[in-house]
Amino acid sequence: MQRQSRDLFDVSTIPDDLAPIATVLSGMLPGDWRSMRPLIDRLKCVKCGLCWLYCPVQCVVEKPRWFDFDLAVCKGCGVCAQECPHRAILMVEEMGR
Amino acid sequence: MTNGTTSAAIQKLHFYQKGTFTVGNRLVSEADRSVQASIDRSNALTCGHRACQGCGEALGARYALDAALRAAGGNLIAVNATGCLEVFTTPYPETSWQIPWIHSLFGNAAAVATGVAAAMRVKGRPEIRVVAQGGDGGTTDIGFGCLSGMFERNDDVLYICYDNEAYMNTGVQRSSATPPAARTATTPAVGPQPGNVFGTGKSVPKIAVAHGIPFVATATVADLHDLERKVVKAMGIHGARYLHIHVPCPLGWGSASQDTIRLAQLAVECGMFPVFEAEHGVVTGRRKIRRRVPVEDYLKPQRRFAHLFTTEEGRKCISQLQAMADRNIAEYRLFDWEGDVE
Q1: What sign results for the dihedral spanned by CA atoms A72, A73, A78, A81?
Q2: Could B46 and A50 be called an inter-chain contact, meaning their C-beta atoms sit closer than 8 Å?
Q3: Cβ B49–A26 below 8 Å, yes or no?
Q4: In a domain? residue B28
């Protein structure tokens, strides 16, 4: 599993008698869960931002004229393709990098 | 038109009718555009969590907490009940929350939040606001006593319930928010009345309204502007507030992961989930149904209702569910175009 975690603070400053506390900001990259990959038609995209609004994992990134996807994060749920009012997003089978 | 240019090179305008977004992002002024990299846009829940594909709860929680964080000026403490949200965001020692966040037990999120709010008052930091959140199991079943106590004492806490209509994390067991006729692990689809029994369960928003607390609202992930507006409104009020967010669960409902938003929309449009808000025990606002759909349209994409479409008993259940939706629509006046249009 790919990770990019970072420490929240210096762990050695935690007293011994404290309740369990989280010390690492989870940055798991769930991109390898994906079976379908979103593909955007850049000409059809009108930048309405619905994919960006509805993406449960915030993998939609803004480009000058279209929205693109951070494939390290995208879980491939397909909500963006379903909600796109211009049908600019197509879900295609994930064939690896 | 707002852009006012008359040149031939003007871009063709598109108007959408999707939720509340009647106009595209491009037509909004630069300042109002939704830009992910905007500095004032908080991000309470990072993307590195372990929610299922198409999780409505992750989406709803992110928007609710972001809106609360913005409304509180960054001074927010979140209290979480046990549930999917707690499990998929915080596998020890990691966390996906970028805000102060505490979890104690399944049933005491409201009580812990009360304590945090009281502690902040005693410490002379009243600007720090408290949000408690839980799933429908932790709210309607296990934590209900603490929740009712919080309402009754009118503690300065916003309680947010993410209602996915069963205990999804432990393997889809029935909760008291499960709709009738739904198949879960503990209500199998057998016998003369398959699935969850009719006449059981409870409506916690209604119970919260009956407490007469300053603000009660229901919201859905299909209408995120409405959700954010309700959270901001709730954060502007002091006292006990309750927000009930309907979040589809692809795993437990047996729906396709891409249908999360569509199902949330259909639940509102068929009348199964009334979206309303109430202040001090009086219903003051409701989201009218724009395009009414039969409950079959809502039930059909979900495998937990698949047994209703194959048997004679199931057909009877569908008509009972339709009657339930009609009662909701009549009760909250969700579809009366002759009356006042809000």
Answers
A1: negative
A2: no
A3: yes
A4: no
Residue B7, in any domain of the structure: no
Looking at chain A, which residue has its C-alpha nearest residue B18?
A85
For residue B206, what are its two tokens? 């209604």
B212 in any annotated domain: yes
Could you tell me if A8 and A24 are in contact, meaning their C-beta atoms sit under 8 angstroms apart? yes
Top mean pLDDT of A18-32, B83-97, B161-175, B187-201 is at: B161-175
* CA A80 – CA B260 distance, rounded (Å): 10
CB contact under 8 A, A22 and B98: no
pLDDT of residue A6: 60
Q: Report the distance separating Cα B195 and Cα A88, nearest Å.
A: 39
Kindly report the pTM of this predicted structure.
0.85
Best A10, A44, A50 member to test B by mutation, with max B CBs in 10 Å, is A50
What's the pLDDT tens digit per position in B178-224?
Answer: 999 999 999 888 877 888 888 888 999 999 999 999 999 999 998 88
Which residues of chain B lie closer than 8 angstroms to A46, CB-CB?
A: 14, 24, 26
Distance from CA of A27 to the nearest CA of B (A): 4
Instruction: Tell me how far apart the alpha carbons of residues B190 and B183 are, in angstroms, rounded to a whole number.
Output: 9
Contacts of B96 in chain A (CB under 8 A): 25-26
Check CB contact under 8 Å for A56 and B260.
yes
3-class DSSP state of B246: strand
- CA–CA distance, B316 with A79 (Å, rounded to integer): 32
B93: nearest CB among A22, A59, A76: A22
Percent of chain B with pLDDT over 70: 86
Complex ipTM above 0.90?
Answer: no
pLDDT-based confidence at A19, cuts 50/70/90? Answer: confident
Domain range for B284:
34-332
Q: Does residue B20 lie within any of the structural domains? A: no
A30-69 pLDDT, tens digit each: 878 888 889 888 888 887 778 888 888 888 877 777 888 8
Task: Output the domain CATH number for residue B274.
Answer: 3.40.50.970
Total number of domains constituting chain B: 1
